[in-house]
Design brief:
Layout: E1 13-17, E2 24-26, E3 32-34, H1 38-52, E4 56-60, H2 77-87, E5 91-93, H3 100-107, E6 114-116, H4 131-144, E7 147-150, H5 161-165, E8 172-174, H6 176-190, E9 196-200, H7 205-215, E10 221-224, H8 229-235, H9 250-263, E11 266-268, E12 272-276, E13 285-289, E14 298-302, H10 304-315, E15 319-323, H11 336-346, E16 351-355, H12 357-365, E17 375-376, H13 380-387, H14 393-399
Parallel strand pairs: 1-4, 1-7, 4-6, 5-6, 7-8, 9-10, 9-15, 10-11, 15-16, 16-17
Antiparallel strand pairs: 2-3, 12-13, 12-14
Helix pairs in contact: 1-2, 8-9, 10-11
The structure holds adenosine-5'-diphosphate and magnesium ion.
Adenosine-5'-diphosphate binds next to strand 14 and helix 12.
Length: 400
């Protein structure tokens, strides 16, 4: 994979696809305010490196789902402003994606300057299913620039004009962020140090079946918590009350349990859970053994003995991948399992990777030191697809 260090960028127009899909709230004065600028910060190493080498940087990104309409509330204006603050230089925002304003803004760039195109999804061809439509937009991007850098890891699994199509038209390279993400996921998929533990949680087994199937060939230990553990417990014949259960997945999960056994993978399930009478922070709740879940109660977190067991099976690992919270961490009474597991991971001496948007959000919400992890992925969906062993369109073109 080519990196930006392989490109001769001085004085050239470099189109950089970034992920600036940040959360926004109304500021109350008619404008919108960014509530978490993590994705903007994650793009800085590439932008700084290119500027430092005299490139004319043209950033492209999407925000939300404007569905082909120029919706003012999904303008990248707040992103341009924040980016400008962080870089300490002006960032010109084009009023359109590839139109007259984009051309004017790009023509005005000097070496080391930075511009941002308007929300690429203002143009409905950006994520069109029609290859010819995407190719037409990609050709317009290619007129604006000499080189292309792919740095939006959060979208690199998408077949979109500014992600995969434009890369086929211009000399291209992976940016710093995409490169670091790809290196980490390659390592955990191909060459993990052992013991290798994968911890899965979150809401649905069906979302993560692909990951489990792909990783079962490779891991030493698979720890399962979160809403998905109840389908595993049901597969073992336990009553799960009104916990989240995907009844149509029980047979599949029985197969996975058998497969883990054949392969010598240690499957670790909760031994106790926090059950509540309703999906609410105020509901009556208590800790019970997984053998004693009664009807009318739902499991919303793993229990303290499970947290201790999980921490023990994490402690001596040399590679840890964590995807999916252990409970409904958004509600304080059900956050302890996620906190315990996250903290156990921070104590590991080895490569520790957090994938999954809600898992990364849990780390921040629970105030766990982010520097305690080797890598927190910026791409929830992209990291999942990587762990499923899929070829991501945006990565595939970078490797051509
Ligand atoms: P990620 O984004 O990290 O991949 P998911 O999207 O799969 O994670 O799942 C996150 C959601 O799972 C959280 O909103 C959390 O509240 C929910 N969750 C975790 N445990 C349970 C549970 N026992 N019952 C219901 N929902 C749960
Ligand atoms: Mg999620």
């Amino acid at each position: 994979m080519q990196t930006i260090d392989d490109l001769d960028v001085a004085g050239r127009r470099v189109l950089v696809r970034a992920d600036f899909n940040v959360p926004l709230e109304d500021a109350g004065d008619g404008t919108r305010r960014i509530t978490d600028d993590g994705r903007i910060r994650a793009a800085l190493p590439t932008v700084e490196a290119l500027r430092g080498r005299g490139a004319r940087v043209i950033l492209a990104a999407h925000l939300g789902r404007p569905k082909g309409e120029a919706k003012p509330e999904l303008s990248l204006a707040p992103v341009a402003a924040r980016l400008s603050e962080l870089l300490g230089v002006p960032v010109a925002l084009a009023a359109d994606v590839t139109g007259p304003s984009a051309h004017a803004v790009v023509s005005a760039l000097g070496d080391g300057d930075v511009a941002l195109l308007e929300n690429v999804r203002y143009d409905r061809r950006e994520d069109s299913k029609d290859d010819a439509e995407r190719a037409a937009l990609a050709a317009e991007y290619a007129e604006l620039a000499d080189l292309f850098v792919s740095d939006g890891f959060g979208v690199v699994h998408r077949k979109q004009a500014s992600v995969s199509d434009v890369a086929t038209l211009l000399p291209h390279a992976a940016g710093r962020l995409v490169l670091s993400e790809v290196e980490v996921f390659r390592k955990v998929l191909q060459d993990p140090d052992r013991p290798y533990a994968v911890i899965l949680g979150g809401s649905k087994v069906s979302d993560k079946l692909g990951v489990i199937t792909n990783l079962l060939h490779n891991v030493d230990r698979l720890l399962v918590g979160g809403g998905m553990c109840f389908t595993f417990l049901a597969a073992l014949g336990k009553n799960v009350g009104s916990s989240l259960l995907e009844a149509d997945q029980v047979e599949t999960v029985k197969g996975l349990i058998a497969d883990a056994e054949t392969r010598g993978v240690e499957l670790v399930l909760p031994v106790d859970v926090v059950v509540a009478t309703a999906f609410s922070a105020d509901a009556e709740h208590k800790v019970v053994s997984v053998d004693d879940i009664e009807d009318g109660w739902m499991g919303l977190d793993i229990g303290p003995n499970s947290s201790a067991l999980f921490a023990d099976r994490i402690a001596d690992a040399r590679t840890v991948v964590w995807n999916g919270p252990m409970g409904v961490f958004e509600m304080t009474p059900y956050a302890d399992g996620t906190r315990a597991v996250a903290e156990a991971i921070t104590r590991v001496d080895g490569l520790t990777v957090v994938g999954g948007g809600d898992s990364a959000a849990a780390v921040r919400l629970l105030g766990i030191d982010e520097s305690g992890f080797s890598h927190i992925s910026t791409g929830g969906g992209a990291s999942l697809e990587f762990l499923e062993g899929r070829t991501l369109p945006g990565i595939a073109v970078l490797e051509d």
